[in-house]
Every structure is written in structure tokens, then in C-alpha cells.
Design a protein that fits this description.
It is built from ten helices and no strands. The chain is mostly helical. It is elongated. The N and C termini lie far apart (63 Å).
Length: 284
């Protein structure tokens, strides 16, 4: 237990505690058998997910996740028994979570009417409600839900709407063979895929970052933000084209008009749901 560590002050920074705890434990508690490579990978994933829970649920600093990755690399370089190290790490994060659960349980119960969601919680819940209707494509289990569902929305656009959009624009300056639509087609196919089991080209770097060990979370967040930004540029450019065609080409056939109206509304809904209407590409 943590309280048995001599001279350890519980008020010290938590990341210092996490650095010290494994060193005390895995030297005195030797695993009866070595973990297989598959078991090691599973243990690492479990620890990562538990840190994600600890950080997000109890509002702890994200640096705690990165500290685990750094400790693991140090353990490998120092030749420490990895099986024992991982068991100690699992014990450490489970103990931290249990401590937070006990703290929350010990807080005085509030009357149901007095319980209020924080502003941040309400915003997060409202944002999730907007995007939950889009497919969740788990190209990597640790990618953010927003990125996974944005991929789902773009993939649906490519698979179910793109051909119809091209047909509706066939007799306009934005026909599928026009430079503008060829550019948009290339961008969409870079961001999404008809096959949900295939990772789009744009996300390959993000997947590589998520597979790295240690995982650099700042680079993961950078790649996810870049994906969302590039998708925002694409969606706003597409909406501009569709809106311009509707305004200029008033003599389109009934079927083309219907398709145009439906997809104009669909694209705007995506822009609104993912909150990207302000992210437009700068024009020279």
C-alpha cells in the first residue's frame, strides 16, 4: 500500500508518486511467470485505458498518461523485469482510481434537485448528442470519438451522396470534370473511404502515432486537429459550391434541384453538428 512507503508524503505531486511507486513494488513482488508478448500488449492497453479514465473522469492532468509511457521506456532500458513492472503499474493506477472513487463516495450526498451538471459537462454532452447519429468507424480504438464519427460522416457522404451530387451538377460549371470538383473529389477520397475497413490516407499518420510506444499524446492531438481542420475546409468549400449552384442555376431540372437541396441541407448539417462553420480556407 502507498501508506507503507517510508517517508513518502501524500501531498507531493502525483506524477512523482507514480514515478516512485513502481520502483518500490516490482522489486519486492516478482511475477510468478513471465508475460507473453500478447499479454504484455494487452497489459499496456489496459493501463492506457485506465489512465484515460482517470484523467477524463476525475479531471487529472494529461501528463500522467505520458509519464507512464516514459516510465515504461526507462524500465526497458534499465533491463527491469517487464512483467513485474506492468503488474505494479496496473496496481498503481487501480489504486489511484479506487482512491478517487472513495473520495467521491465520501462526499455528502446532495438532494437530486440540487445536483447540477457543470457547464463543461453540459457542453460535452450536447456536442456528443449532435454527432452520435453518424457512424462510429473504429479505425483505431484510441482515436477520439469525434474523429471516428467525422470519418463516418465523410465516408457516408462519399459512398451514399457523392455520385448523386455529381449528377446534379453535370450541366453546370461545377460538373464532376471541372477543376473545382476534381479537387474536392480528391480531398474527400483522401479524408474518407468507401470501405469502412480501410484507413483513409490522411489518417495513416495518426494511426502510426497511436501505435507508437511511448505514445506522444501531443502529436496524437495535433494529427486529430489537422484531420478535423482539413475536413472543415472541405465541407465549407463543398457547401459554397452547392449554395452557388442553387443561387445561379435556377433552371435546373426537378430531379437535380431536389438532389441539390437535399445535399445542401445534409452538408450544412454536418458542418453544424461538428461545429466547423468558422473554419474556412483562406483565399488569396
Amino acid at each position: 500500500m502507498v501508506s507503507a512507503l517510508p517517508g513518502f508524503c501524500l501531498k507531493k505531486r502525483l506524477d512523482q508518486f507514480l514515478d516512485l511507486l513502481p520502483a518500490f513494488r516490482y522489486e519486492s513482488r516478482v511475477n510468478p511467470r513471465k508475460l507473453t508478448p500478447g499479454e504484455i500488449s494487452s497489459a499496456v492497453e489496459k493501463i492506457r485505458k485506465r489512465y484515460e479514465t482517470y484523467v477524463s473522469k476525475y479531471f487529472k492532468p494529461r501528463t500522467l498518461r505520458e509519464a507512464f509511457e516514459e516510465r515504461y521506456i526507462r524500465a526497458l532500458r534499465a533491463g527491469i523485469d517487464i512483467s513485474s513492472f506492468l503488474i505494479a503499474e496496473i496496481s498503481a493506477i487501480e489504486e489511484l482510481i479506487q482512491r478517487e472513487e472513495a473520495r467521491v463516495a465520501a462526499e455528502p450526498a446532495k438532494p437530486e434537485a440540487a445536483k447540477q451538471q457543470s457547464y463543461a459537462d453540459r457542453v460535452l454532452e450536447e456536442n456528443r448528442k449532435r454527432i452520435i447519429k453518424y457512424p462510429d468507424i473504429p479505425f483505431h480504438s484510441d482515436a477520439s470519438e469525434e474523429t471516428r464519427r467525422l470519418l463516418g460522416a465523410l465516408s457516408d457522404l462519399l459512398r451514399d451522396h457523392w455520385q448523386g451530387i455529381g449528377a446534379a451538377l453535370a450541366d453546370t460549371m461545377y460538373s464532376p470534370s471541372s477543376p473545382e470538383m476534381l479537387t474536392l473529389d480528391s480531398q474527400l477520397r483522401y479524408l474518407a473511404s468507401v470501405d469502412r475497413n480501410e484507413t483513409p490516407q490522411f489518417l495513416i499518420r495518426l494511426v502510426a502515432q497511436l501505435r507508437k510506444f511511448p505514445r506522444n499524446y501531443s502529436l496524437v492531438e495535433r494529427d486529430e486537429k489537422e484531420y478535423i481542420l482539413e475536413a472543415a475546409f472541405f465541407l465549407n468549400d463543398l457547401f459554397t459550391v452547392l449554395e452557388r449552384v442553387k443561387r445561379v442555376y435556377t433552371d435546373l431540372g426537378a430531379e437535380a434541384k431536389k438532389t441539390l437541396e437535399e445535399n445542401l441541407a445534409y452538408v450544412w448539417q454536418m458542418i453544424s453538428d461538428f461545429r466547423v462553420k468558422e473554419f474556412k480556407r483562406k483565399r488569396p
